[in-house]
UniProtKB/TrEMBL annotation:
Record field: compositional bias (Basic and acidic residues): 205-214
Domain RNase III: start-end pairs: 5-132
Gene source species: freshwater metagenome
UniProt region (Disordered), positions on chain: 204-235
InterPro entries assigned: dsRBD_dom, RNase_III, RNase_III_dom, RNase_III_sf
Keywords: Endonuclease, Hydrolase, Nuclease, RNA-binding
Pfam families documented for this protein: dsrm, Ribonucleas_3_3
GO MF annotations in UniProt: double-stranded RNA binding; ribonuclease III activity
Protein's recorded name: ribonuclease III
């Protein structure tokens, strides 16, 4: 694991002064439930999400001087969403370094868009704590800057459920059906969603709200459908 984490540091371009922060960012809640006494990456994800939003807003404001507020919002959404972040996470091979519970690992959790995008946000939060605002700003620009410089090549993803419904219609599949379950007390509920297409589960997602879990499940399904299409003959 030490070798894998060291290689991940090289890929993200930040050498941690406090290596425990990166390990913390890689701990999924499923692993923590099997290893009591360790905090999951959820708090770091919360911090990283805020840092990411700040950096992206700062970058689009400065680089797109002629854009109005609505266009700036679209540019931000084109990066600050689970599908876009999952693409970056896959390019960094974050999934191979995650600490996952046995069940989540068996269920292909290392490639779930919701899990790896959350982990990327947690890493951003960890870099912010380890190196400060400048290091975090540099990291986000290094990982996501090209998407912001070439916005026309990367469309905004704002409603994954609608996107999935349209994709299924174009494939003449049945409409997506969502299954939802929840865990935890009323003041700290966590939701898990699965999306079924033609009776088969194509995507899974989790989040602090039903909407977030379903959107992430739809995002996961879109990734799997597009990945399957790219491997079909003549695709």
């Amino acid at each position: 694991m030490d070798t894998a984490v060291s290689a991940l540091e090289e890929r993200i371009g930040h050498r941690f002064g406090d290596g425990s922060l990166l390990l913390h960012a890689l701990r999924h809640r499923s692993w923590c439930s099997e290893n009591p006494g360790h905090e999951s990456n959820e708090r770091l994800e919360f911090l990283g999400d805020a840092v990411l939003g700040w950096v992206v807003a700062d970058v689009v404001y400065r680089r797109h001087l002629d854009s109005r507020e609505g266009r700036l919002t679209d540019l931000r959404k084109s990066v600050v969403n689970a599908l876009a972040l999952a693409d970056v996470a896959r390019s960094l091979d974050i999934g191979s370094c995650l600490l996952l519970g046995r069940g989540e690992d068996t269920a292909a959790g290392r490639d779930k868009s919701s899990i790896i995008s959350d982990a990327l946000e947690a890493i951003i939060g960890a870099v912010y704590l380890d190196g400060g605002a400048v290091a975090a700003h540099d990291l986000v620009v290094r990982l996501l800057g090209e998407r912001l410089l070439q916005p026309n090549g990367f469309s905004p993803y704002t409603d994954f459920k609608t996107m999935l419904q349209e994709l299924c219609a174009s494939r003449e599949d049945l409409p997506p059906v969502y299954a939802l379950r929840e865990e935890g007390p009323d003041h700290a509920k966590f939701f898990f969603a699965s999306v079924l297409v033609n009776g088969s589960v194509l995507g899974d997602g989790e989040g602090r709200t039903k909407k977030q879990a379903e959107q992430r499940a739809a995002s996961d399904a879109i990734h799997r459908l597009k990945g399957a299409a790219s491997t079909e003959p003549n695709a």
